[in-house]
Design brief:
The structure holds two protein chains of two kinds. Chain A is of the alpha+beta class. Helix content of chain A is about 55%, strand content about 15%. Chain A contains eleven helices and ten strands. In chain A, α6 runs antiparallel to α10, α7 packs antiparallel against α8 and α8 packs across α11. Chain B starts with a strand and ends in a 5-residue tail after the last helix. Chain B has two domains: about 210 residues, HUPs (Rossmann fold), CATH 3.40.50; about 30 residues, no CATH class. The chains are: A alpha+beta, B alpha/beta.
């Protein structure tokens, strides 16, 4: 019999994240959204409480959580602020290639000092000429003796202006297409590594995003992750691990939108009664609740699949794709429930729509997710 | 310093409470009980003393047999308490302050204890009778409504304040003693994630249930009810702020007669 209940351990993790999200993040969410401020003091607190390097094993200084446990936490954080959550969990994405492709010596060398203090890392895959088409990378890594020389530009890189460590995917041999890609760990201090200026974004404005230029950055061979040419595989396996928590992030935004809408419907009157008594609003709320519930269960199921040692490509793509579409839809309906007030920045729901939108785009656009879902699906028929 | 801190699980402030159908008490169904309020402050105080005095240990103790007793004890371990002991409550043991104090005494007497800390009252029934009864049973001095507790190694005395009606009293006491703490003068810490995970695997100690005596169960809860819903709020209809103020003043003068 499958069990959908949370263990006391899961509940205590979720409660801790909820407390942090509601007492430390939520009070600053609107202000950081309005001013696009990067609230480093909140991120420092998140690190101090172990909310930052969730996927790094305990012996390397992280929290060593399963994907399911990560999802419980990420949903709670995103309920308070999607943008802050993106910056808080960006380390999980950036460090996963080291966990998957690093030697024991590399893991010790990079992760121990990194996790011991507050540090941010950035995952550098996407480029100006292509995001989802990772096989067409233009950033080059040229071997020169015991070093590689990196040249090129990455864009839309979360936390890049504030990061101290970058995991970078670059093409060593373009003829081999995606089999010519290698992964590297590059410190902020590397000469020729230049983060660009902060992008002005539609949502996730408490997070920081910029390009990163590599101008003849010299990287010792000992800082390559895995074998030469293994970079694409490391990148894809990384995304298999981190895609599901994006479903949780979207679920958190959707749950916040539903809660705002339901509470508002119990206060606002039109035509002499509360709008919650109008069937039109009831149907909206019922549909929103279904979407949130399904998003959460798909996310939990994908996490459960991965935690049982399966790749979970199909499940995690379904979860990410469905939950992010649900988040946009639920946020949209929350605005509609608020009517004109929902369109005003003074009310919290329009931010949710802007934050939800990104979840359809990053960590694999939903079009790519659907391609993956169809591919995995059809495999079962051929 | 060996510090014992006594804890009681109380309903989460965010839970919706309702009485049992027969009005005999709170319906625990679906209610989450947590470490909260005065007890959270007591744990924080114990940990501050431990950090300021090398070699100190903090022992958490709670009386009860619900899963929530275990939960508050694990929460205490996650916050930094060194050991946790549950005193099991056998069916039929009364829930009155004397039975509770006797149960806590059983656990405390089996532990090294220089100092016993409690919240001055529980966050749910707010009776505040256990600290005094416990001190009496342990044969130790008792201070209540205490704030800002410090250990002074030079004089080997605890120094602390008591909030009194007209101001703040300053006190000192040698160990051992029982101290019931006022809430909210310290900022209770949040447990770190790895510590929460570790606390799930911690072994909890068990102490013997109290032996019932004629004193236990002499006070009994007669009826439990929620306060009636609040009424009387009234919205003023207005077009301009001036009109709102004018109407409000008229109501205060003529109807509420707040001023002539």
């Amino acid at each position: 019999m499958p069990d959908f209940s949370l263990s006391p351990e899961h509940e205590s993790l979720r409660d801790m994240a909820r407390k942090f999200a509601r007492s430390e993040m939520a009070p600053h969410a609107a202000e950081c959204d309005r001013t696009a401020r990067f609230p480093e003091e909140i991120y420092r607190k998140a690190h101090a409480l172990g909310l930052m390097n969730l996927n790094v094993p305990g012996e390397l200084g992280g929290s060593g959580l399963s994907v399911f446990e990560q999802c419980l936490i990420v949903e709670e954080l995103a309920y308070a602020c999607g943008g802050m959550t993106t910056s808080i969990i960006a380390n999980c994405l950036a460090l996963e290639p080291i966990l998957l492709g690093g030697t024991p010596e590399q893991k010790q060398r990079y992760l121990q000092p990194f996790c011991a203090d507050y540090h941010l890392a950035s995952f550098c895959l996407t480029e100006p000429a292509g995001g989802s088409d990772a096989g067409a990378l233009r950033t080059r890594a040229r071997r020169e003796g015991e070093e590689y020389v990196l040249d090129g530009e990455k864009c839309f890189i979360t936390n890049a202006p504030h990061a101290s460590l970058y995991t970078v995917f670059a093409m060593v041999n373009p003829e081999l297409r995606h089999k010519g890609i290698s992964a590297f760990v590059v410190p902020r201090s590397a000469k020729g590594l230049v983060p660009g200026k902060d992008e002005e974004k539609m949502g996730h404005r408490a997070s920081s995003t910029s390009s990163v230029r590599f101008e003849g950055v010299r990287v010792p061979v000992s800082d390559r992750l895995g074998a030469e040419g293994e970079g694409f595989s490391i990148a894809m396996r990384t995304l298999d691990q981190t895609r599901t928590p994006i479903g949780a992030l979207a679920t958190g935004i959707a749950q916040a939108a539903l809660d705002h809408a339901a509470r508002y419907s119990l206060k606002r009157e039109t035509f002499g009664k509360l709008i919650s008594e109008h069937q039109a609003i009831q149907i909206k709320l019922a549909n929103m609740a279904q979407a949130v519930h399904a998003a959460r269960l798909l996310t939990w199921h994908a996490a459960w699949t991965i935690d049982r040692g399966h790749k979970g490509t199909l499940e995690s793509s379904i979860a990410k794709c469905f939950a992010s579409d649900a988040a946009l839809h639920v946020a949209d309906e929350a605005i509609q429930t608020f009517g004109g007030y929902g369109y005003m920045k003074e009310y919290p729901v329009e931010k949710l729509l802007r934050d939800a939108k990104l979840t359809q785009i990053y960590e694999g656009a939903n079009e790519i997710q659907r391609t993956v879902i169809a591919r995995e699906l059809l495999r079962g028929y051929s | 310093m060996e510090i014992v801190v006594c804890l009681k699980p109380v309903p989460d402030a965010e839970t919706r409470l309702r009485p049992l159908a027969d009005g005999s008490g709170l319906d625990p169904e679906g209610v989450k009980f947590v470490l909260a309020g005065y007890d959270e402050s007591a744990v924080e105080q114990a940990l501050l003393l431990k950090e300021a005095n090398a070699g100190s240990k903090v022992h958490a103790v709670s009386f009860g047999s619900s899963r929530w007793t275990e939960e508050v004890l694990r929460a205490a371990i996650a916050l930094g308490c060194d050991t946790a002991t549950a005193v099991e409550r056998s069916a039929g043991t009364p829930e009155d302050p004397l039975a509770t104090a006797a149960a806590l005494r059983n656990a405390i007497e089996a532990l090294p204890h220089d100092l016993v800390l409690l919240g001055k009252q529980a966050g749910d029934d707010e009776e505040g009778l256990v600290p005094g009864a416990l001190a009496e049973m342990l044969g130790l001095p008792h201070f209540g409504f205490v704030v800002d507790l410090r250990w002074d190694p030079a004089s080997q005395r605890l120094k602390f304040g008591r909030s009194a009606e007209a101001g703040q009293e300053t006190w000192e006491s040698p160990l051992p003693c029982v101290i019931a703490l006022q809430q909210a003068w310290n900022d209770p810490r949040t447990a770190k994630l790895p510590a929460i995970l570790k606390s799930r695997r911690a072994l909890l100690g068990k102490a013997n249930p109290p032996t019932p005596t004629a004193d236990h169960g002499r006070s009994e809860l007669e009826r439990f009810a929620l306060p009636p819903p609040r009424t009387g709020a009234r919205m003023i209809e207005y077009r301009t702020p001036a009109e709102a103020a004018e109407k409000l003043v008229r109501i205060l003068k003529e109807e509420a007669k707040v001023f002539p």
